[in-house]
Amino acid sequence: MDIKALPAWLKEKEPARELPRGKAGRAFERTLKGVLGFFEDTLFNETVSEKAGFLQHVEPRLKMITVLALIVALSFKKTIPGMLPFGLFAMVMAMESRVPLLAYFKRLLPGAAFTAVIALPALFITKAGALAAAMLFIRVVESLMLVFLIGFTTRPAVLVKSAGAFLPGVLRTLLSISYRYIFYLARRLEEFLFAQRARGTRAGVGFSERKWAGGRAASLLLVSMRLKDELQMAMEARGMSYSQREFMEKFRFGIREAALLAAAAVTILL
Amino acid sequence: MHIPDGYLGPETYGGLWAVAAPLWYWASRNLKKTLAVSEVPLLALGAALSFILMMFNFPIIGGTSGHATGAVLLSIVLGPWAAFLALSIALTVQALAFGDGGITSLGANCMNMGFAGVFSGYLLYRLLLKGNASNRRIVIAAGAAGYFGINVAALLTAVELGIQPLISAAPDGRPLYNPFPLSVTVPAIMLGHLTVFGFVEAAFTSIAVAYLLKAHPGLIKR
Question: Do B62 and A214 touch (CB under 8 A)?
């Protein structure tokens, strides 16, 4: 067997170490959790976006612009009653789009908890402070509810294409290519992490753990460099240029699009 | 350090979008002129890599860990303009597809982490490398640049958040967005970055650069 074909971790000469316990292994576990969470979220988005719901069938570019307009409009609202319709809009749209509500709220939780912690001290200062904290909390949570609608109801590939439609040539190409390779590099990182775990080592403790993490980041950079050459050859072979236009379906405007715009307009005006 | 939607008022996020948009346009035009078509994949992969680098939890002393941005690392390999674009794309994907960082505050996040973080770190790196550029010096300069870059980005974030009560208040004086003044946001954010996250970024950048100097020295801009 060709030694070059072996994965890098099998060729490492460092002896296996005992798994660090407690705080020492936390960074490793957090990175692993982050990578697994990324794949889980993407898979979940993909699954929900395949459902036969309302927003799944709306023209993606119009959906994106409408949601962004709602988030901007929400940022201009200066009272709590003025902000509440946006949350209601998001809830109705999520239900009509068959988004599992438990998962929807679970996804909101980290952002909501973070803001709750930030806003907490303001609650105890004055009545005005409490009102300011409540407004911040509602604004942040409702903005998240709106933005998650895009991810949940648009297939990732379509989402990137739709976002690219608003960008100039070279940025569109960069966005399109980079999105595809995010998954490849995340998979490589996952492999690094699982390989370490399978060998019964994390990365040691202290300096060796830092060395491991920095080394893996640099390894990913080298992987990117190697991929770059392959990608460049593939692009040249297909005669691609800087500002490659992605194939987009023709813009459509029907009853669903009109209904979405009407609902958004009512939400903004309420 | 990602500012979510709702923390910045329209005056601030609008202003930062107005600054960021011409920079993106200029950077993409500049790259189109100076960059060979063959380097487009490198930039695209740089953007994908910066997304992944933000997933890394990097350990420092006492079991404390934090996320690195990889901003200075990318600027040392790709150059500052390319790193700015790469980080902007990564932040856009995070905001749109995963709700990490806001849409309205995307301009602010790109200016703080992508522009100020990258350029301040890169300038310090270049400054520290003037004259002698031994490998040891490169590693130290990269670490110092990483520390400086992330702290500049954090300071800008703290200032943008801290000015909200001054510029975006209701007629009764009640803050409409982030309610805490500069006297709270600057120490709250800077303390963590000066003592923890700055060192995370410094260690991450210098170790990655040391690895590259060994494995692929041609990639490091001297």
Answer: no
- Of the partner residues A27, A64, A171, the one whose CB lies closest to the CB of residue B24: A171
Domains identified in chain A, total number:
2
A134 shares a domain with A68 = yes
Under 8 Å between Cβ of A63 and A260: yes
User: Is pLDDT at B211 greater than 90 in this prediction?
Assistant: no
Domain encompassing residue A197 = 166-245
Average confidence (pLDDT) over B40-49 = 82
Q: Find chain A residues with C-beta within 8 A of B212's C-beta.
A: 218, 221-222
Check A139 against B5: CB less than 8 A apart.
yes
Pick from B13, B48, B63: CB nearest A181:
B48
Q: Which residues lie below 8 Å from residue A252, measured CB to CB, with a gap of 6+?
A: A59
Residue B96 to residue A26, Cβ atoms within 8 A = no
Residue among A144, A163, A168 whose CB faces B28 most closely: A168
pLDDT band, very low/low/confident/very high, at B12 (cuts 50, 70, 90) = very high
- What is the distance between the alpha carbons of residues A35 and A25, in angstroms, rounded to a whole number? 16
pTM of the model: 0.85
Is the pLDDT score of B169 beyond 90? Answer: no
pLDDT band at A252 (very low <50, low <70, confident <90, very high): confident
Q: Are residues A256 and A147 in the same domain?
A: yes
Check if A169 contacts B (Cβ < 8 Å).
yes
User: A52 to chain B nearest CA, in Å?
Assistant: 20
pLDDT at position B137, please?
Answer: 92
Say which residues have a Cβ less than 8 Å from residue A92's Cβ, sequence separation at least 6.
A263
Tell me the range of A3-12, A57-66, A215-224, B78-87 where mean pLDDT is highest. A57-66
Look at the alpha carbons of A48, B4, A72, A78 in this order and tell me if their dihedral is positive or negative: positive
The ipTM (two decimal places) reads 0.86
Query: Which CATH number is associated with domain B10-219?
Result: 1.10.1760.20
Same domain for A210 and A81, yes or no, is no
**DSSP string over B179-209:** ---HHHHHHHHHHHIIIIIHHHHHHHHHHHH
* Helix segments in B79-132, DSSP class H: 80-98, 106-109, 117-128
Q: Is the confidence at residue A15, as pLDDT, over 70?
A: no
